[in-house]
Design brief:
With about 300 residues, the protein is an alpha+beta fold. The protein folds into 2 domains: about 80 residues; about 180 residues, Glutaredoxin (3-Layer(aba) Sandwich). Helices cover about 35% and strands about 20% of the residues. It contains 9 helices and 12 strands. Strands 2, 3, 4, 5 and 6 form a 5-stranded antiparallel beta sheet that branches. A 5-stranded mixed beta sheet has the order 7-9-8-11-12. A hairpin with a 5-residue loop joins strand 5 and strand 6. The chain starts with about 20 loop residues before the first strand and ends in an 11-residue tail after the last helix. The relative contact order is 0.14.
């Protein structure tokens, strides 16, 4: 049933600002040329240009407003291009065109984490810990990303020892090639190690992050071969895998799965479906402890 909604404030939190704690990808797609704008679209563009002092060098395209499940509320997208940086942001606007806000619409009759959990693809992904653990932590990471290295250290030195048997970690490749020239090579190497010996993947995972500072685009292939050997891999089989398309296709599929979940920064972590961007150990523990607390006798989560 549609619900009337009165919108009187404009909420614009950190619009178009880069994430401070994570590495962001940039869209390579240029927004299509707009059709003739409605008065509402023109008003939105004029308002945002005035608010953020966007001059003619900034391309700002306001999408055609669409109906939502809420009476009196329309949805639109803002495509912003500043130099080589591109962002697409969802906004809501009242039908009378007088009120605008940014945020996520939530249906409180449904489990807010169910959709994320259903979209995360964990088949054929490296996994560490008890498959029946109460908490599954899925990380979308880039081997060259410094914040991902911080997450690696937090997981290895803190989370996994502290929550042994209670937390399982699943790794998903999300190389950001625009920022990190050797990230894809490392991701393919990780897949080749996993295909040859799933357990050895986590040795490779440690080798790459522990030595991140000495790996470069120029030496990445040699380093990956070295680390694969130290992880107990058969060298010729590993080389053949690195040269074949299958490992690259697996990396592409992992990245596409992240994009389905609106992942655009690394690391992005899902704790039983609950999203965290960055490597904040306190938030990770907060989410893990919350999930474990729901398992206590007489305790039930307040969700539909």
């Amino acid at each position: 049933m549609k619900t009337a909604l009165s919108v009187s404030l404009i909420f614009l939190f950190h619009i178009f600002a880069p994430e401070a704690r994570a590495q962001q990808t940039q869209s390579a797609t240029t927004p299509p040329a707009p059709a003739a704008q409605t008065p509402t679209q023109k008003n939105i563009e004029a308002y945002l240009r005035h608010l953020y002092a966007f001059g003619p060098d900034v391309l700002l395209l306001v999408g055609a407003p669409k109906e939502t499940a809420i009476d009196g509320l329309l949805e639109t997208t803002i495509n912003l291009t500043i130099g080589e940086n591109k962002e697409t942001v969802k906004f809501y606007v009242s039908k009378d065109g007088k009120s605008l806000f940014r945020g996520e619409m939530s249906d409180m009759t449904k489990d807010p984490l169910a959709e994320s959990r259903s979209q995360i693809q964990m088949k054929d992904a490296p996994s560490l810990g008890d498959p029946k653990a109460a908490v599954t932590l899925v990380e979308y990471s880039d081997f060259e990303c410094p914040v991902c290295r911080n997450l690696h250290d937090v997981l290895r030195d803190n989370i996994l020892p502290k929550y042994s048997g209670k937390v399982r970690v699943v790794f998903k490749d999300f190389p950001i090639e625009q920022l990190h020239p050797w990230a894809r090579t490392a991701a393919i190497a990780g897949r080749c190690v996993y295909q040859q010996n799933p357990t050895a993947f986590w040795k490779m995972y440690d080798f790459i992050y522990d030595n991140q500072e000495i790996i470069s685009a120029a030496n990445a292939w040699t380093k990956m071969l070295d680390y694969a050997g130290q992880s107990g891999l058969q060298a010729e089989t590993f080389k053949a895998c690195m040269a074949s398309p299958e490992a690259g296709e697996a990396v592409n599929a992992s990245r596409a799965n992240g994009q389905l979940l609106d992942v655009n920064s690394t690391p992005t972590v899902f704790v039983n479906g609950r999203r965290i961007v960055g490597a904040d150990a306190h938030i990770l523990e907060q989410y893990i402890n919350y999930e474990l607390d729901q398992l206590k006798p007489g305790k039930t989560a307040d969700k539909k």
